[in-house]
Amino acid sequence: MDYRVVEKCVKKEREAQNALYQAIAPQMFSLCIRYMGSREQARDVLQDGFVILFERIGEFRNEGSFEGWARRIFSNSCIDALRRRKKISIDDISCTELESLNPGVCSALAALESGEIMAVIAQLSPVQRSVLNLFSVEGYTHREIAQIMNITEENSRIILLRAKSALGRMLAKEGYL
C-alpha cells in the first residue's frame, strides 16, 4: 500500500479514498464472506467496514502493514454484525492443526474446491464456525476469542476441538477421508 494514499485519505481526498477502496476491497470482501456466509451480507459489512476505516484512518500510525490494520477493522465489523445477526461462516482453515486430530484431513481439503470446503464448513454450528475462523484463519488467541465472543478461554478451546472433530467426521462421511 502506498502510504501517500493513506495520508491523502486522512485529508479526506476523494480520489485517494477511491484508490484505497479499489486496492483493498477485494481482500476485505473475501474476509467478510468468510465470516458472513453470503455475498449480500458480506457487501453490507464491507460498506460498514469502509465507513469505519475512513472515520479512523487518522489513527493508523504506520506501525505494521496498513492491510493488517484494515483487516482488524473489517474482522471487528464482521464480528459486530454477527453478534447482531447470530450467524457466522468460514471458508478457510489451518490444515496442520486439523491433521493432528484427523489424519488425512489436509489431503482431503486439498482435493476440494473452495466452494466445496465452504459447503462442508457451513454444516458446522455458527459458534464452531466462528471460533474456527477466528483461531485458524484470523490468528486470534483463545484469550482474544473469549473476549470477542463473551465465553471463557476453556470454552473457546473446547469449541475449536469439537469443530475440528466434526469437520473430520463430515469429510469422512462425504468420502474424502
Automatic annotation (TrEMBL):
Q: Answer whether the UniProt record assigns the keyword Transmembrane to this protein.
A: no
Query: InterPro entries under this entry?
Result: RNA_pol_sigma-70-like, RNA_pol_sigma-70_dom, RNA_pol_sigma70_r2, RNA_pol_sigma70_r4_t2, RNA_pol_sigma_r2, RNA_pol_sigma_r3/r4-like, WH-like_DNA-bd_sf
**Similarity remark:** Belongs to the sigma-70 factor family. ECF subfamily.
User: Which residue intervals define the domain RNA polymerase sigma factor 70 region 4 type in the entry?
Assistant: 116-167
Keyword match Transcription = yes
Domain RNA polymerase sigma-70 region, chain residue ranges per copy: 20-87
Give the organism the record lists: Mucinivorans hirudinis
Instruction: Give the top-rank taxon of the lineage listed in the UniProt record for this protein.
Output: Bacteria
Write out the GO MF terms.
DNA binding; sigma factor activity
Q: Which Gene Ontology BP terms does the record give?
A: DNA-templated transcription initiation
Q: Could you identify this protein by its name? A: RNA polymerase ECF-type sigma factor
Q: Give the keywords, sorted.
A: Sigma factor, Transcription, Transcription regulation
Instruction: Enumerate the NCBIfam families for this protein.
Output: sigma70-ECF
Where does the secretion signal sit in this chain? none
